[in-house]
């Protein structure tokens, strides 16, 4: 038996030797031929196909919530589908969303009576539908005028508005994608959105952070066809964002989302003026209906009666984005004269700003003597109290009252510190001022420009002050900033009023990061710009797992801050978030998706105690201030600690989160069993006892095995080895 095995092994060894000699020769002959065809192909296509990198759903831009072409952004929503979808999502996600139409009203901030009819369109009588998004949206304080609950004094508010102009259909598709994204991903974590095996590795910044877009064939890298390969909106760019970030924003913000402000005008554009397939050509031969449907022959100054009550396309309607009160109605030659529905060029009819105001708003016997410009024009000690015009339309009154009645802390100021208005088209990011000419800038120009440039980078859109494009008066952003000090931006989406349905999805995806950015910086836009410009927060760091000393007792974690960073000592604003996750035999694939159910705990940061280091070195090499926190974990606990720092400032900006790395926005620290096993004497005695049994038993076994007088263990005593 042993000989046969040996002989077979010898012959096998000889064969191996021969193959070792012949194989290199064969490879040298065959290798060139085998690579000729691939080499030729690689000259033109050196990368991978999209479905070789990502999941089929992502490669084909299939959104995970399913649904028909409208829900998949392959066809347009209309008023009715928008309203129905918002109602459905609010019903299914009642912990974070409430649905509304217009507002119940009452006495507004200006002492005027209003009710639901005050906000209904002139023609179809629809109020604008909207949703409130925040955690515990039906708790907190309730605002009877606005009609919402979920008002929390410590949560910043942000206002996001689509479709001032009826024909700009992408301006409501982007907010609808925002809504779908929030609902689908809220309360989740660790989702591999593109199916490449990584999580949270490519957030919203307009950059292919993980390099997967560049892995594609060159011909596939410009998937949105904008001429910029691997740029914003292309497959593989900003595709794997942090779900935890979305959850944090909903939990710490109040989001007011109005996808379709101009319901009247949009219905008319879709149903009458252009038709539902306007992207293939408007049936009126026009670029589309822009305004609302105010009947100017009745409610304006034109004396002709309008007996049939049909829309007069040559006169009716008001440009809602010229109807806000700040610097309203003064740019004659750019817009029609106030109160005149036709004036000069037919193009100017599109920007008709509405009728002048005829009310003595301050009761001094005069009218229009102090228009809205931030200056006390009549020197009576009150500013902007007797306006010339503006906010005359149901839609702009709705924005006015929602803005001015949204005052959670009762200080008389609007809570909207940031606001956004979606339009189309031109691929632009715009900010105030819009009403003045060359050389005019806001007091916050440096900071508005900072945010605008970042949003331009996210989308590859051109960022500029609005007046650098052309002068406007009475627009949403000039009013929000000029009257209410809200950092306001206008986004001009895409390259057409009515984009082709095949382009809806990728254009909307390209613009998705902007509203999340506006939501994040709503706590204190000015301060966030300051720290961004000075790179204050970039150099700060949270102690990495490899640097943490895990011994007995509480686990210390340090945080290194810039000495000028005005952190708050309030534990609700500045704290270490941590949780212990413990895989078990039934959950051998226990990962981020399951961890979302493990609640976070909070530990305070404090200044160094005696004997602890008081200084640290920032990432830029300068000296910083060190803070310490403790994770109170029993020594018997085993698993992984996930931790992150959340910082707030003394002026209320919150949160600044560390670590800032992609991949989950938290660190993970392995925790071994740390509890004592008893005294050293008892441990030694136990070792001696166990060792005696083990080694003693082994010695007896070996002695029996090698005893020439005894048989082989496990065989009968009378078994004859010679006979075998």
Structure commentary:
The chain is α+β, with helices and mostly antiparallel strands and 724 residues long. Among the domains are: 2-43; 537-671, Immunoglobulin-like, CATH 2.60.40; 680-724, no CATH class. It is 28% helix and 15% strand. It contains 18 helices and 21 strands. It has helices at 2-42, 50-53, 56-59, 79-92, 170-185, 243-252, 263-273, 296-299, 346-349, 394-404, 445-459, 466-469, 476-484, 501-510, 513-520, 525-534, 592-595, 680-705; strands at residues 97-101, 105-107, 113-115, 129-133, 141-143, 148-151, 157-162, 254-258, 416-423, 428-431, 462-465, 487-492, 541-542, 555-562, 575-581, 601-604, 615-617, 623-631, 639-647, 656-658, 667-671. Strands 1-4-8-7-9-12-10-11 form an 8-stranded mixed β-sheet, with helices on both faces. Strands 15, 16, 19, 20 and 21 form a 5-stranded antiparallel β-sheet that branches. Strands 13-14-18-17 form a 4-stranded antiparallel β-sheet, with no helix packed on it. Helix 11 links the parallel strand 10 and strand 11 (462-465). It starts with a helix and ends in a 19-residue tail after the last helix. The model is unreliable at 1-43 and 299-305 (pLDDT under 50).
